[in-house]
Amino acid sequence: MSEKTIPYKIYLEESEMPTAWYNVRADMKNKPAPLLNPATHKPMTAEELGVVFCDELVAQELDNTNAYIPIPEEIRNFYKMYRPSPLVRAYCLEKKLGTPAKIYYKFEGNNTSGSHKLNSAIAQAYYAKKQGLKGVTTETGAGQWGTALSMACSYFDLDCKVYMVKVSYEQKPFRREVMRTYGASVTPSPSDTTEVGRKILAEHPGTGGSLGCAISEAVEVATSKDGYRYVLGSVLNQVLLHQSIIGLETKAALDKYNINPDIIIGCAGGGSNLGGLISPFMGEKLRGENDYRIIAVEPKSCPSFTRGKYAYDFCDTGMICPLAKMYTLGSNFIPSPNHAGGLRYHGMSSTLSQLYDDGLMEATSVEQTAVFEAAEQFARVEGILPAPESSHAIRVAIDEALKCKETGEEKTIVFGLTGTGYFDMVAYEKFHNGEMTDYIPTDEELAASFAKLPDVE
Amino acid sequence: MSEKTIPYKIYLEESEMPTAWYNVRADMKNKPAPLLNPATHKPMTAEELGVVFCDELVAQELDNTNAYIPIPEEIRNFYKMYRPSPLVRAYCLEKKLGTPAKIYYKFEGNNTSGSHKLNSAIAQAYYAKKQGLKGVTTETGAGQWGTALSMACSYFDLDCKVYMVKVSYEQKPFRREVMRTYGASVTPSPSDTTEVGRKILAEHPGTGGSLGCAISEAVEVATSKDGYRYVLGSVLNQVLLHQSIIGLETKAALDKYNINPDIIIGCAGGGSNLGGLISPFMGEKLRGENDYRIIAVEPKSCPSFTRGKYAYDFCDTGMICPLAKMYTLGSNFIPSPNHAGGLRYHGMSSTLSQLYDDGLMEATSVEQTAVFEAAEQFARVEGILPAPESSHAIRVAIDEALKCKETGEEKTIVFGLTGTGYFDMVAYEKFHNGEMTDYIPTDEELAASFAKLPDVE
Fold first, then answer.
1. Interface contact B178-A112, CB threshold 8 A
2. I want to staple A303 with a disulfide (CB 3.0 to 4.6 A). Which of A334, A365, B344, B413 is the partner?
């Protein structure tokens, strides 16, 4: 297929959209380690998990064998309001860089939540509704996930209680207002509405909160309130399953034009976007059908893959959630306050952690000033103002494209553009004013955090 | 064609995108009144206009005869980064309303400027670059136009000086920061950087500024600085020409599925979106080939069509711009400060004014609390959080659909969803907190404003 025939944006028809999610665990020889009961250290049963999560989501969480899980029609109809998302050929960026590389990005920001998070939010809300629940609880940091869940709950007429990390609640009143537009209640965390919140407030008065702390509060409310369950926007197997829609659409769009990528790049916080984007490509790799370089990009200020330990750890600060085996910085690790945007969770998806440990993917970390430089460069030629999270992937995509410029290689690079930065202008302002700084945790800091890892045999 | 086969979103292929803009003036029997020299009251010549605007844009401004103007390839390539925009079937809204009406909306918000303004910004920047200029100046109120122009100038490597209404500059720091991301300089207006700005500041110390005032400053800079011209995001004939891309794509998408709309609805401030959306439909109407109900929706707080006078008036506060014949509230009219969002210009496009005066379209006005109710209802079922401006059209589309529910008529309604409200959360917050109020100017206020209209024979 000649260059000329590849459009700027490859859109699939609605009829070409995937009708089933792909479960990469089915093709993994080494399955991700199971969640453990924090008291007994034994694998969590479906019954135990059912106290926290909806039944069908528990089944998806534990399913390591079925490669394809049909997407219910109600979810597919919702997807049609903002999907298929475009796979964009970055012609203008290529030209600006003067690279022979061919760059594509899968753009997930064209919906009001501003990110890919909506793909799993609508699925989780659907199963909650199907189970006859009254509502769901969750935590949110930067606010993308909370917004996505609010939209999904509004669509299915479910109550939605969001615990928002207090520092974000105060710094991002607009995100909060978007959630209110969709009818969600938003509480700054830690709060005095939960036992664990009151305990944390007593121990750390004046704290700005953390994701791990907001998770504890949301889980406490879900498990103590009749007709409620807890939902989570990343890390879990079920979330990666729903997010496989990103990778499946990407693959279908590439296949339509006979494009075979050499490198696939995604930013990684808890792993929801990366896991979704790479899943069908990783599946081919696991089955020995094809090979790809897959690169996870994380912030140097929160480097789970590149400097974390692969160990069982708590998922939350209150230590009321199951234990997960993952690359982790320790559940007490909180990134420096100068860190802008998301990608600030202390751990990483168990599935991705296992794949990384098996050498099936690479990881790299970047400093945020370099990330914002890439973001601005991208915005000026490609139009879209990217989210700080997504810009981690842009940074490495540009770096790889510049390597191609040196070597003359015409590599095909695909990266995930997870979202837009419209609610991150405070960070952009800091960058413009030269006030943005970088932070790299010291070995001593990490060692202190690792020392608190639970002792699991 | 059966209902089932119409997708949620109708996308054209890039190859189906229009290659020429449509100039509705060519089909108008009564042409829009010409711009007049404010000193001589004689029609502005191309030479006179060339001091303010780029040469090719002057030609477009004065061209009342050519129906189609080819879109240069460079502009079409830029369009491909965010166009064709989807024509969305509002299945979920229809269901929620329980109406037999079929509702479609043309969504122009899927780009970082957040609105349709980019369609004309890129065209104006292109012609400025082609003329070898160094840069352009403009004004912006709520910020959509300034953002769009910043993006366009960044793409063509042009300097961009934006005069932003001071009250917006202070209340919307994030919009300002987006413009800075694209390399624009943003000055709060009135400022001490211009003669007219200093004069206004001396007469009205502490003023929050107005669009008319920011226009005066931008024009002064453009006409006094070597290698600069002034560009405007609405009102002008050339802008409506560029925005015809909205209507042409809408018509092509409807034709693809043999859909014939009964009612076409657009919000109207200066008229850029409305004029663009309706142009090919109006063309059919003017040529007697088809008939449509066309409805302009404006705020009750700034009702140019519904309560204005059809007369020659100043386009700016400083009275340095040409005079335009239009439906106007008087160039001194400033909407009440409680008015949220845009649609606050005192006048209306000369082309639309003539069409309205000829009875070829209707106009109606709505109160902002009713507009925000419609916005929230729309967001909760259709996902997209709409801009306050766009929500004026949503309000009337919902009202028309509810009339169909009463009568049982299966009318087809098309409206323009011009943009997203991500930078308008202060207004949404007021609405959520029950603090939003409505304002309708009194007859006395308008009479006082009309008394200052220039005396043009």
1. no
2. A365
Residue A135, strand partner residues: A159, A228
The minimum CA-CA distance between B44 and chain A, rounded to whole Å, is 36
Q: Could B82 and A13 be called an inter-chain contact, meaning their C-beta atoms sit closer than 8 Å?
A: no
What DSSP element (H or E) covers B396?
Answer: helix B388-407
The residues pairing with B265 across neighbouring beta strands, listed in sequence order, are B295, B415
Residue % of chain B over a pLDDT of 90: 89
Res A214 pLDDT > 70? yes
CA B367 to chain centre: 19
Report the chain A residue with the minimal C-alpha distance to residue B180: A432
Q: What is the pTM of this model?
A: 0.94
In which band, very low, low, confident or very high, does the pLDDT at B335 lie, cut at 50, 70 and 90?
A: confident
Contact indicator for B445, B418 with CB cutoff of 8 Å? no
For residues A297 and A364, is the Cβ–Cβ distance under 8 A? yes
Q: Which of A4, A5, A8, A75 to mutate to test the interface with B (most CBs of B within 10 A)?
A: A8
Q: Which residues, listed in sequence order, are joined to residue A316 by a DSSP beta bridge?
A: none
Contact B380 A80 (CB under 8 A): no
Which of A177, A178, A186, A426 is the best mutation test for B, with the most CBs of B within 10 A?
A177
Separation of CA B328 from chain center:
15
pLDDT in tens, B17-52: 999 999 999 999 999 999 999 999 999 999 999 999
Domain parsing of chain B, residue ranges = 3-16+72-114+237-450, 23-69+117-230
Determine whether the interchain pair B82/A383 forms a contact, defined as Cβ–Cβ distance below 8 Å: yes
Calpha distance B173→B180 (Å, rounded)? 11
Q: How many Å apart are CA B94 and CA B114, to the nearest integer?
A: 25
- The nearest alpha carbon in chain B to A158 belongs to B380
CB atoms B422 and A425 under 8 Å: no
- The confidence score (pLDDT) of residue B1 equals 42
Classify domain B23-69+117-230 at the CATH class level.
alpha beta
Q: To 10 degrees, what angle do helices B272-286 and B237-256 make?
A: 60
CATH class held by domain A3-16+72-114+237-450 = alpha beta
The DSSP string of A330-388 is -TT----TT--SS---SB--HHHHHHHHTTSSEEEEE-HHHHHHHHHHHHHHH---B-H
Common-topology check for domains A3-16+72-114+237-450 and A23-69+117-230: yes
Query: Looking at the predicted structure, is the pLDDT value of residue A457 above 80?
Result: no
Cα B158 from Cα B124, distance rounded (Å) = 11
Q: Does B428 sit within 8 Å of A178, measured CB to CB?
A: yes
Query: Cα A291 from chain centroid?
Result: 24
What is the chain A residue with the closest CA to B381? A155
Question: Taking 60 as the threshold, does the pLDDT of residue A377 lie above it?
Answer: yes
Q: Residue B335 in contact with residue B201, Cβ under 8 Å?
A: no
